[in-house]
Design a protein that fits this description.
This protein has about 475 residues and is α+β, with helices and mostly antiparallel strands. The chain has helices at about 20-25, 55-75, 130-145, 170-175, 185-190, 250-255, 265-280, 310-315, 320-325, 375-390, 425, 435-440; strands spanning about 5-10, 10-20, 35-45, 50-55, 90-95, 100-105, 125-130, 290-300, 305-310, 340-345, 355, 405-410, 415-420, 455-460, 470. It is elongated, with a radius of gyration of 26 Å.
């Protein structure tokens, strides 16, 4: 069966065609087919009508040259892997800070590409890329390495460049890397400056295929959305401990770390995920189909990986805030054996964000943290909360359905947490005084709840008629 894998960016599309090894296919009947035999590789670049094409040797040379040159560009330290014209089909040359020459030493020259060599019987193809095109090409290679079901035995070796020889700075990285570039490019940059150790060799597993004809090299770390395979969560080894294997996709990560399944913890993380994505999703127009993703989330709410679940989600990932919300290993302890929660996230055609646990809730969630349970205290706080909200809620409601919230206060009646309980409460929260009350105390209406002291919880309902209801909390329904 012919298999295709497509990795698309605005300025570059990488198309791989091949076959599945029948000796391995039986082991993966429940998974999408593994492309283990590459027949043809095509690389289409914006501004050029004809794709660059070749076989396995061309493709392997391309990914080595691309990754090597990206490391060189970000570190300003020469990398021979990017310029090895004696043994490689593909090499790069830097023309200036925003112009990069891709050179293909091939047997034929496709129509539409200019050749500058007049002496060679089979002249090389020379294509000039700007920096945005270069990093889209790097990102396409990222997506390939994140795909564990495509040429799984092919991986990439990156050698660190000594920091004292590097001429670039981290500021340059931030300026040079477009927002759409995956974190593996950041990993390349970090390796270029010797900020993190290079990925370690992953010992072959009993059920994995090895190849004696292919260089066995370790893939770069990636957190980019792939057409079907997962965005790769980050795993970076530390100098003082044994290096962990680099995980290629979300499913692989979940096979190596515990999964968070506690309903109460999932409920709290669900809120954190929504609060990260909702305000960052600014471009909500032009969707013809729902964009559906599977997210991996650490216990502190950090989004560590995502996977596009439909074609439109892969093509339009740049229209979502997900690439920019992936956690930065420079600002957080690297993911190692931390438990991971999974969520289903939908950017729907009605401009509504939907977030829910991947497997749902096994039981009814409970509110985390210590609670005020004395009935007399709860009764007094109920009345105090009602008075506070009633005095600050003004204006004529525009909503037509009840807005339901869970609101928590401390022993002094100060709001400590609030949570929308239905979609209309998410949509019209600005018509309530709750975000203003919360923001006045914590500086943000999506700040983490205050759970360091016992709290009393209430259900607060804003009715379209202008009526307010406040009752003691009895749990999620």
């Amino acid at each position: 069966m012919n298999i295709q894998r497509k990795y698309s960016l605005p300025n570059c599309t990488l198309l791989l065609e091949g076959l599945s090894d029948v000796t391995r296919a039986a082991q993966f009947q429940e998974m999408r087919p593994e492309l283990s035999i590459l027949v043809n590789a095509e690389c289409t670049l914006s501004g050029y009508n004809q794709p660059l094409t070749g076989g396995r040797e061309f493709f392997e040379s391309l990914v080595r040259a691309v990754s090597g040159y990206a490391q060189e560009f970000l570190s300003s330290v020469p990398n021979p892997q990017a310029h090895n014209q004696e043994s490689e089909l593909v090499e790069f040359q830097k023309v200036n800070s925003n112009r990069h020459r891709l050179i293909i030493h091939s047997e034929g020259v496709p129509e539409g590409f200019e050749s500058h060599s007049k002496n060679s019987k089979r002249p090389p193809i020379e294509i000039d890329l700007n920096t945005e095109q270069l990093f889209d090409l790097v990102e396409a290679v990222d997506q390939f390495f994140a795909d564990s079901q495509t040429l799984p035995e092919l991986s990439l070796e990156l050698q660190p460049v000594t920091r004292r020889y590097g001429g670039a700075s981290q500021a340059l990285i931030r300026q040079a890397v477009p927002a759409a570039v995956g974190v593996s490019t950041l990993a390349v940059a970090a390796i270029a400056f010797n900020l993190i150790p290079p990925p370690q060799m992953r010992p072959p597993q009993p059920d994995e295929q090895s190849s004696s004809t292919t260089k066995s090299i370790t893939p770069p770390v990636s957190v980019a959305a792939t057409p079907i395979a997962a965005a790769t969560p980050i795993q970076t080894p530390t100098p003082t401990t044994n290096a962990k294997p680099v995980v290629k996709d979300l499913e692989a990560l979940l096979n190596t770390v515990p999964e968070i399944t506690d309903p109460s913890q999932l409920r709290a993380l669900n809120r954190q995920v929504y609060n990260q994505i909702h305000p960052a999703w600014t471009n909500r127009s032009g969707l013809n189909d729902d964009l559906i993703y599977r997210l991996g989330v650490a216990a502190d709410g950090a989004i560590v990986g995502y996977k596009a679940l439909n074609k439109e989600a892969n093509l339009r990932v740049g229209q979502t805030p997900l690439p920019n919300l992936l956690y930065n290993p420079a600002n957080r302890t690297p993911i190692s054996n931390e438990p991971i929660a999974q969520f289903r996230v939908v950017f729907n055609t009605k401009s509504v964000l939907e977030v829910s646990p991947w497997r749902g809730y096994a039981t009814t969630p409970e509110v985390l943290g210590a609670k005020i349970t004395d009935s007399n205290i709860v009764k007094g706080l109920n009345q105090k909360l009602y008075n506070t909200v009633r005095q600050t809620w003004s204006g004529t409601p525009t909503f037509t359905r009840d807005l339901k919230y869970r609101v928590a206060v401390n022993k002094d009646g100060v709001i400590a947490d609030y949570e929308p309980l239905n979609q209309v409460a998410f949509d019209y929260f600005r018509e309530t005084p709750l975000p203003k009350m919360f923001n006045a105390i914590y500086g943000s209406n999506v700040a983490a709840p205050n759970n360091k002291e016992p709290l009393a919880h209430f259900q607060v309902i804003f009715k379209p008629s202008g009526k307010l209801e406040v009752t003691p909390w009895e749990g999620y329904q």
